[in-house]
Design goal:
By secondary structure, the protein is an all-alpha fold. The longest helix has 40 residues. Helix 1 packs antiparallel against helix 3. The radius of gyration is 25 Å and the shape is elongated. The chain has three helices and no strands.
Length: 100
């Protein structure tokens, strides 16, 4: 079997509002958990309690996700600031000198 070789470079990953997306998803999981709590007995009678606890787990895992993406976002901003600072401190290349 021949080895697959890419014909072109992969595009840069898309960066979007990651913190807002994870926060919105976490809020949604907790909202679904709270909406299902009044029906806890109904779910228990039918052996479907996993629906309730899946939403709770999604909310708590979302809290970990918020912590993670906020740290990642801060690290990316810190790295970009360091790069800009290094670029500002680097001597400017005047280009080729004209020959007489």
């Amino acid at each position: 079997m021949a080895k697959w070789i890419a014909k072109h470079e992969a595009p840069e990953p898309l960066e979007g509002p990651v913190v807002a997306t994870i926060t919105g998803g976490t809020i949604l999981w907790f909202a679904l958990f709270l909406v299902q709590l009044p029906f806890y007995g109904w779910f228990a009678d039918r052996g479907q309690l996993w629906w309730v606890w899946t939403c709770a787990a999604g909310g708590f895992l979302g809290l970990i996700g918020i912590w993670y993406v906020r740290g990642r976002d801060a690290a990316l901003k810190r790295h970009a600031a360091e790069r800009a600072e290094r670029a500002a401190q680097a001597p400017q290349d005047p280009g080729p000198t004209p020959q007489p």
